Amino acid sequence: MCGIAGAVSFRGAGASDLEQMVAPMIEAQRHRGPDASGTKSDDVCALGHRRLAIIDLSEAGRQPLTNDDGSIWITFNGEIYNFQQLRDDLEKLGYSFRTRTDTEVIVHAYEQWGTDCVKRLRGMFAFGIWDANRRRLFVARDRVGKKPLFYTQDRNRFLFASELQGLLVCPSVEREVDPAAIDSYLSWGYVPAPRTAFRGISKLPPAHYLTLDVSGGEPKLEIERYWSLEYTPKIEMSLEEASEALREKLTEAVRLRMISDVPLGAFLSGGVDSSIVVGLMAGLSDRPVKTFSIGFEEAAYNELDHARRIADKWSADHHEFIVKPDALSILPKLVRHYGEPYADSSAIPTFYVSQMTRSSVTVALNGDGGDESFAGYERYLGNRIAERLHAVPGMIAPARALSKMLPDSIDPKNRIRQAKRFLSVAASEMSSRYGRWVSYFSEEAKQDLYSREFRSRLNGDGHSRWIESLFSETSGLDPVDAAMSVDVRSYLPFDLLVKVDITSMANSLEARSPFLDHEVMELAARLPGRMKLRGSESKFVLKRAFADMLPRENVRRRKMGFGVPVGEWFRGALKPLLEDSLLSGSAATRKYFDPQQVERFVRDHLDRKTDYSFPLWSLLMLELWHQEFIGAHASSAHV
């Protein structure tokens, strides 16, 4: 796992100038690769690399790495789990290897298969390859978006990096806020690809590659998608056959992710997914698995008892950490590492469990991706029920009436509150319903919140059209598969995977996710919906396949997620930060919002009139981001 960067000059900047340009780009990403650094350049392209050594710890594994004649170079971030099989295939084709790394396998795979090489890679990756003979840059990102890749282009050059900081250190890169990105952020808590919060900087979407050809007079940039997750045709097999196939495929995924030349362990929440990963690791290892768990003093958010039960079952070497409100002194550091507004408060415990884990190991496996493949979220059941209500004449009106009758609650985990929220949007069509369930601010709430000036700057291509476009590609799928497909192309890559990548790499820790193995995901997607969600039971086939690894108490408990009690923190230790940041006359985001509406959100929450935990957290993180990245650089910022 590493930090990468590169620059291509359209005006012949010269090798030394390009190396000087790339050097600070990789230095800004030192945390991603503390073990070594390197650059390589010619008169058109420079590549830079920060190394976190995982496979082949020798000097031979340093990057950028070249082919035999030096015409092809690579800077690579990630892991290719099938690299040994690919190496065997390439050796049979006549290629020789100087290292034991997966990096060199990508180089020769590109030589053999060109841009199609990405279709043969099984793993997580973002890399840049400079093909000096063709004068072509080839940049690719893995199928689900585990590894990030940002880029920008102007008349003189093209730049790319693993993190925004790698681009923002360049004096030529302006910090101009994209209003449409802020609008999307307030809906989802993240900025979806290809946008970033900065106008002129883009994300390469998951499962895409980019080619930049500078062999002609003008640079030619093309972006192509190379993979998509297909949910049809469905596989015809019995539950027993599906359970056996799933167990075999996931066991293989875990085994491949245990290949490492450095110590490894696992994040353990006590939920179904991480429990299965730890159980499989225990069966594949000849020593106790090191496990790491996070908890809270608030009982409603604390899963440590469930994690201990799994750790005890497998005699794991178990470690725990309790997150307290004073731990939020880490917020400024998180804001800097994310580089753009990011509102998932579970980044806090993820950062601390990564920090604790890194003190013992360099690689950690996790259970990410199990919910999106096996219908783990309650919204999947909600989507199915809502569609059935639509199918019964006369059911929508009573649902709406019942919603108005149910009492509200400020407890986000209250079942009646959740039922009221479900019924209030059940009458909507699928994309609108999904949007209301997962958004921080509804369209109506945003319009009330925005200042007149900021509202006028939005160009009408907001979040609703994006979600509608994602659902339009799910035609013919049942409601559960449709919602999972949208999550795999939105919430998973732009929220969950960003969270884990940034928090783990901030601590120089590599996170591996067996459930995100694309072969596991392809098998799960094509299983019939009734195997993933049977009645109201989620992950049915997964629990069946690994019943021997899952204590009854862990399986039957209500899903907690990785929530953070920010609502109570705002009424306690975080109250001064909340008020000082959002209600101050010098708040940077006053140019976006009506101050009276912001104050109403704050006061109603503090007075316990309603729960605005998520909206307030998103506003707070936006304000802190603006102070860090825009306010301190006002001379180059435009809003």
Number of helical regions: 28
Radius of gyration: 24 Å
CATH topology of the largest domain: Rossmann fold
Major sheet summary line: 6 strands, antiparallel
- The fourth-level CATH homologous superfamily of the largest domain is HUPs
Strand order across the biggest sheet?
A: 2-3-1-9-8-11
Class per helix and strand makeup: alpha+beta
Number of domains: 2
Which range best describes the helical content: under 10%, 10-25%, 25-40%, 40-55%, 55-70% or over 70%? 40-55%
User: Uncertain spans, ≥5 residues at pLDDT below 50?
Assistant: 634-639
Outline: globular
Q: In percent terms, what proportion of residues is strand?
A: 15-25%
Q: Distance between termini?
A: 35 Å
